[in-house]
Design a protein that fits this description.
The chain is α/β, with parallel strands linked by helices. Helix content is 20%, strand content 38%. It has five helices and 36 strands.
């Protein structure tokens, strides 16, 4: 291009090199500018080699668009690839928390611990990866797109896979769940009525649903979840996971309910309840309740009256106490003796580790000798086995205590409405005897005292 013409041309490239703007100065000769010459100038002088728009340059020349910056080259951003993924036909993370309805009551009827499927039901569909597309700047720099990958087939049991490896179907009737990346269809058992003399005691490996009630005097055990659609009377019920009682518990002072997970019930009366996580109900009356994490009593008329309730982290309800002659004692947090036990066990655990190391070194030394004393070697091996057994026992206790200590750091008792006189509050081994009525209150420990503060409602 003639140098006299290039003096009238200016090009501005954006900082990210995604656009280039062209400026044509005023010239008298209408044929002074030529599309091919300008494209060559952009390439050779400005190094603009991608995304050039000849039609826009042509329009500038033909329309004599002078003295104005016009975008004549545009880069393209990269389009990221997408990894392969699964579309599941069931809720992979179902919420187990009951819903509080607008009228303040709690809906337990629509809380299901079991997502059931039948043979042939579609469980999941695999969507393969989608490759991305690299981008570029106007100067030809490549903008690499995110690379993508396929993910492995699902592992588990109780399903079949289509020939193309993309669809997963139930192979049995049962409960479907996705746990730790594994897809499983687990068979479960349904009792179509009450657990009574016509059924007898139950000990089931899996999930169990009882459409009626569990009558007085019977024992029901399951390694998974137990769902009871009506009542639990004075019975013994044990579940490896959660227990849901849609009609509530009328224990008659004899019922014992134990769950490896949560316990949900419409109400709990005159029963002993142990939960390895949380207990939730509308009301608890004259019960002994022990929950590893929380006890949540919520609903329009949620109340705790009588009995002893204990949780490591929190007890929350609307009203505590009130019935004449009903002693109500609530405990949260970690007792000093539990802390002492933890430190003692942790020290013993360290000593056991040292003992095992010494025994292992002695065994290695004995085995390296040309002539071994087999009797002595057997005694050493037996000692190592015994010490290792003690080690696992101590470690298990320490881990359990450590979890309790961790979740009990900020223990509290919350009454959204009131606490009546006569209630006993225990937090971290400290005790408060309530001798006056409190309203909208939180109890917590500070130092060696139990303090109260006003509940700040949302």
């Amino acid at each position: 291009m003639d140098e006299q013409i290039t003096k009238h041309i200016a090009v501005v490239v954006s900082e990210d090199e995604m656009t280039a703007d062209l400026f044509l100065g005023m010239v008298e000769d209408p044929d002074a500018y030529n599309v091919d010459d300008i494209i060559e100038y952009l390439k050779d002088v400005e190094h603009i080699v991608a995304g050039v728009k000849p039609s826009v340059i042509m329009e500038m020349i033909n329309q004599r668009i002078y003295g104005k910056m016009v975008t004549v080259a545009t880069g393209a951003p990269g389009v990221d690839g997408r990894d392969g993924f699964y579309n599941f036909q069931f809720d992979t993370s179902p919420s187990k928390k009951p819903k509080v309805l607008p009228d303040g009551t709690v809906d337990y009827h629509n809380l299901s611990l079991v997502q059931s499927v039948e043979i042939g039901d579609l469980l999941a569909t695999y969507v393969p990866k989608c490759e991305g597309r690299d981008g570029y700047t106007v100067k030809g720099k490549v903008l690499p797109a995110k690379r993508c990958k396929d993910i492995p087939p699902l592992r588990g049991k109780g399903f079949t896979i289509s020939s193309d490896g993309k669809k997963y179907y139930a192979a049995v009737d049962g409960k479907v769940e996705l746990s730790m990346g594994q897809l499983n269809v687990l068979q479960f058992h349904t009792i179509n009525g009450d657990v009574d003399l016509s059924v007898g005691n139950i000990d089931f490996k899996g999930d169990l649903e009882i459409l009626g009630s569990i009558k007085e005097g019977f024992t029901v055990k399951a390694t998974g979840n137990i769902t009871v659609n009506k009542l639990i009377e004075a019975a013994n019920v044990e579940a490896g996971k959660d227990i849901l009682v849609r009609g509530g518990i009328l224990g008659g002072g004899k019922a014992t309910i134990s769950a490896g997970g949560n316990v949900y019930a419409l109400f709990i009366e005159n029963a002993t309840v142990n939960s390895n996580n949380c207990v939730q109900a509308d009301a608890i009356v004259n019960c002994n309740v022990n929950a590893f994490s929380d006890i949540n009593i919520f609903g329009k008329t949620s109340t705790i009256v009588g009995g002893k309730l204990k949780a490591n982290r929190k007890i929350k309800t609307r009203k505590i106490g009130g019935e004449v002659g009903a002693a109500t004692e609530l405990t949260v947090g970690i007792e000093p003796d539990a802390l002492a036990t933890y430190h003692k066990m942790a020290k013993e655990l360290e000593e056991l580790n040292h003992e095992i190391e010494k025994v292992e070194k002695t065994i290695e030394m004995m085995q390296s000798k040309p002539k071994k004393d087999d009797n002595l070697l057997m005694q050493l091996i037996r000692t190592k086995v015994e010490l290792t057994a003690d080690l696992y026992k101590h470690r298990s206790i320490c881990e359990e205590l450590q979890k309790r200590i961790e979740i009990g750091k900020y223990a509290e008792i919350i009454a959204e409405e009131k606490v009546c006189p006569g209630v006993i509050i225990n937090i971290d081994g400290h005790t408060l005897h309530v001798d006056e009525e409190y309203t909208e209150i939180i109890f917590l420990r500070k130092g060696d005292k139990i303090l109260s503060k006003k509940l700040q409602k949302d």
